[in-house]
Each structure stands twice: as C-alpha cells, then as structure tokens.
Amino acid sequence: MILRGIGASEGIGIGKAVCIREQKLDYSMVHYGGKNVEKSRLQDALARFEEKTNRMAQRLSAQVGSKEAQILTGQIMMLNDPFMQSQMQDAIEAGQCAEAAVDQVCTLYAEMFAGVDDELMRQRASDVRDIRTRMLAILLNSGGMDISELPAGSVLVAHELTPSMTVGLKKENVVAIVTKTGGRTSHSAILARAMELPAVLQVRKGTEQIKDGDSLIVDGSEGIIQLNPDQQTLSQYLKKQAEFAHQKARLNVYRDKETVDAEGRHFSLYANIGSVTEAQTALQAGAEGIGLFRTEFLFMDRQNSPSELEQYEAYLAVSRTMAGKEVIIRTLDVGGDKAVDYLGMEREENPFLGHRAIRYCLDRPDLYKVQLRALLRAGAEQKNIKIMLPLVTSLEEVRQAKRLLECCKQELEAEKLPYDKEMPLGIMVETPAAALIADLLAQECDFFSIGTNDLTQYVMAVDRGNARVENLYTPFHPAVLRLLAQIIQAAAKAQIPVGICGEAAANPGLIPLLLTFGVDEFSVSVASVLATRAHIHQWRASEAQAVSQEAMGLSTAAGIEGYLYSAAKR
Ligand code: PEP
Ligand code: MG
User: Fold this and answer.
1) How confident is the model at residue 79 (pLDDT cuts 50, 70, 90)?
2) Does ligand 1 have an atom closer than 6 angstroms to the CB of 352?
3) What's the 3-state SS for 423-491?
4) What ligand 1 atom has the least distance to the C-alpha of 336?
5) Backbone phi, psi, residue 17, to 5°
6) Do residues 355 and 346 lie in contact, with contact meaning Cβ atoms separated by under 8 Å?
7) What is d(CA 385, CA 327) in angstroms, rounded to the nearest whole number?
8) Distance, CA 451 to ligand 2 centroid (Å)?
9) Which residues contact 20 (CB under 8 A, 6 or more apart)?
10) Ligand 1 within 6 A of CB of 322
C-alpha cells in the first residue's frame, strides 16, 4: 500500500514503524491546593522545564548545531513571556490548579497562532503545544515515551514531531520520520533535514493504518511511504537507497570546498530561496550567498500584503543568517503564474505578457515603496543586501524604480531611520528586450542576474507552464545561448558582475558554456548547490572553451543538447 505526503527531508529510510501515541496527561484528579501551593508548583515546574530544556538544547547543539538548539531555547523565552505568565497566575487566582492554568493558557495561544495566516506563526503554535505537553508531564510526574530508547531501525510515526521529541532522537536508532501534520518549513522539517533523516510529513490519510512493527519504506525525496511492501518493491528501494547514499557521499566532499574550476579559478555559488527559513537550509547546504530571494512568496497565502515591519524583519533575518555573504533580494514578481488575489490584479488574456512584476509595482508606488523601504532598512546592519528588479524591458523602468528608491531614502533620512545608503541595485535580465539592450542597461545597473526560465519562455515564445509545447522550451536553443553570451559580454564590458539564477545555472550540460562565457555567479536551488560545485570543479578553462566553441557552432537545440550531454563530465 502507498501513502503520500510532503517529502520534507531527502533520502530513503527502511525500517519498522514505532507509533508515538499522544501522551495521556489527565489532571482531572488533581486537587486544587490553594493559590500559594499552586503558584509554587507552577514555579517549580517552570524551573524544571527551563533546566531540562537547556540540557536538551546543549545536546542538540552538540549533535546538530547551535541554530537548531535555538528552537528549544526559544521555547523557554516563550514560556517566560510576562503576559503568558500573568495569564497563568490569573487562572490560579481564579481557582484553577497549576495543570489547568498551563493547559488553558497554552491551548489559547496555540489556537491563536494556528489561526494566523503565516507559516512562522503556525510554527509557534506547534512550539506552544510542545510546551503544554512537557509542562503537564512535569507537573503530573509523567515520564512519557523515551524516544532515545527506541530499537535500531525505527521509523517514527507521530501526529506531529515536536522539537523536543526530535532532540531525543538518536540517529543510530531512527531511520525515518512520518507525521500527519507539519509543512516543509516546520521546525520538524528543518530539524529532520539538519539531522539528515528522511521525512515525509502531512500524510493526512493513512497514518492510522500504520501499526507498531509494520514494515515501512519512507522516500523523503518523493514524499512516498510504502506500507508493508512486497519483496520486489523492497529490493527496488534498497537499490535506490544505495544510489542515494553513494551520490550524497560523493557530493558531501564539496560542502566546505571553494567553488573553483579545475585550475582554481573562482566562481560564486549562491542559492535561490523563497522563504526566510530556506536561507538557513541554503547555508547548511554550502551556499556562499543568496542569488535570488523570491519575495512574492511572502505575499502569498494571506489576506493582505505584509507590512513594512514584517518585510523588514524577514529581509533582516535572511541578511543576518547570511552575515558576511551577499543576499540578492528580488522585488515583488507577481503576475504570470504567480497570482496574489488581494492585490486586485485584473484577469488578462495573456498574463505572462501582461501587467505584472516591475510593471505592476511601478503603477503601485504605495505598495512598492513599502517593500523598498523595508529593504533599505534591513540592509543597514549587515550591508549585504542588493535589490534586484524583475522583468525589466527598458531603461525607463530602471530609472523610475531608482527615483522611487531615492524618494524612500529621503523619507528614511527625514525619519532618522538607519538604512543602507549604498545599497546596490541590479536587474534580472529575463526578457529579449533587456538582453538586446544589455549594454545600455549595464550603464545604469550595479549588476545583472540572468533569469533563464523566463528568458527561454520569451525568446522561444513558449509558455513555460504549457506541457503541450514543452518540447520547444529549451535553453539549449542557439537563440537562447547566443543571447546568454551577449548579455554576459555586455556586463563584462561595463565591468559589472553577472550571475545566472534560472534553472539553467544547475544544468550540467550548460556549465562549460557558462564558464566560458564568463558568468561570475551561479545561483541554484538549495538541493543543487553541491552538485553544481562538483560540476564546476571538473572543468579546465581550455576544455570548457573547446566544448563551448563546438556547441556554438551547431545549429539546432537537439544537436547542441546531445553534444553537451556527451561532453558533460560525470
Ligand atoms: C527566471 O525567470 O529565470 C527566474 C529565476 O525567476 P522565476 O523563475 O521566479 O521567474
Ligand atoms: Mg522570472
């Protein structure tokens, strides 16, 4: 039987199910001992909670890293919040025992956080539920299940994996994690990835069917669980598991290496991210910076646009995570296939050619200035943020955006708010118009980043999401490749750095061409960082040059692709 969820941590785990049932924390038999007694029981429990949590954080810090340990110390801060504390005291004053006070206040907070349309807030709900369970266990003297004692080869199956549960995990005993709730950016997912344990989360239907001792295969790359698989499936997955381990071991060697070609020439290797939490994953994956932060994701799945403060906090968090490294933040790239309902964008016949991205933003200075101000302010501390404009087609757009940016600077100056006065401004080169006037644009920009996803779509006149014309959507077409070479040349002539942040940056076939054309920076999805570094390492400039020359002499996409794959180094 196959169950499906979200693949939240890559890899394949094969083992026996251990189902973690909710702990029974019944306090109906507890007598109210009077205000003073209950208050002192609560104080004792708080002190023990703090002591236990600090111990767990130290263990986690040693096992995984200090960033992950902060998730736990954050729980102590949360529980010590004066308002939360006073609500617990009030409940005791009103005649509740310490258990009821903790239960009621934590449940209230968890519901409040869970109702907010924001991933980070929802994670807090999970933290408060964890605090509730652990505080009740302390008050009731209930040991609960000791996860650190699980037998080797266990697959943990739980409703939710709380950070404190994760700490008890021993990598030598647990081979995978399956939960009913939790998203890719939930703390459980972050920790699972940090511990490199395959995890499938949000298995909404079917976790009830898993019983203790069932055989499970957890494919964290595909988000699939095989429940009691037959022999044939098992051997298929054993093979897949071995391949994965082999591949990982091979690539891991590159985690702390510099990104250089075979002769030591250096390139920057950055990651593309869509959320604040992904910046941490990028760093752990060996990224040397952020080449594209798709900020439109901050605007999605909610009822109204994020405030200046909320955006400022998000950009600052990424900037701090990447301290000492560059962070290129793209301004709102809405429209096309990325709809944001509350922005009131009209339905259009051809949304990819319509009122979107920079076009929309320049017509909504009220909205755009909020983002620009947030960016300028967030850059004040680390001075590592660069602003990038999407879908540029003309010089006027760049100039208009610069005027708005100037206006924001003057406002911040008048308000005496700190901001980065020298924040660089660059553009995505992702339209044929921008590519063809790259020499002119380079005079007015601090950097370029080539968006091959859109560039290919517009050059080839192929909707990048339309499966019927998928065969025509290829960056190997000589038209796309000639434009790439031209854009990179224009940047070099103007002496501005040029990166590439479309999917093509991670395409092994294209790497010798990009090296030869003179790209300074590759920005790829987090999962592709190490593989891209490994590919770059393989090439000598002269070999890449010869392959590039041969490829550019061919006249069809199929011919070029076939040749480049045969020439690619494995
Ligand atoms: C691109 O167009 O190549 C790009 C990186 O941006 P997006 O995929 O977000 O359009
Ligand atoms: Mg794009």
Assistant:
1) very high
2) no
3) CCEEEEECCHHHHHCHHHHHCCCCCEEECHHHHHHHHHCCCCCCHHHHHHCCCCCHHHHHHHHHHHHHH
4) 10
5) -70, 135
6) yes
7) 5
8) 5
9) 145, 147, 156, 157, 158, 159, 165
10) no
Tokens 């301290």, residue located: 323
* pLDDT, mean of residues 349-364: 95
Q: What is the pLDDT of residues 283-328, one digit of tens each?
A: 999 999 999 999 998 998 678 999 999 999 999 999 999 999 999 9
97 annotated active-site: no
- Dihedrals φ, ψ of 387, to 5°? -95, 140
Complete edge-to-edge strand list for the sheet that includes strand 199-201: 2-4, 224-227, 215-219, 12-20, 154-158, 174-179, 199-201, 6-9
Q: Give the residues across from 77 on adjacent strands.
A: none
Give which of 317, 89, 285, 303 is closest to 190, Cα–Cα: 285
CA distance 397 to 33: 70
pLDDT, one tens digit per residue, over 123-170 is 788 889 889 988 998 898 876 566 777 889 999 998 877 766 766 777
Give the model's pLDDT for residue 195. Answer: 76
Does the Cβ of 499 fall within 6 Å of ligand 1? no
Amino acid residing at 447: F
Other C-beta atoms within 10 Å of 219: how many?
A: 23
What residue ranges in 331-370 does DSSP mark as E strands? Answer: none
Nearest to 59 by CA among 167, 170, 188, 175: 167
The type of residue at 555 is S
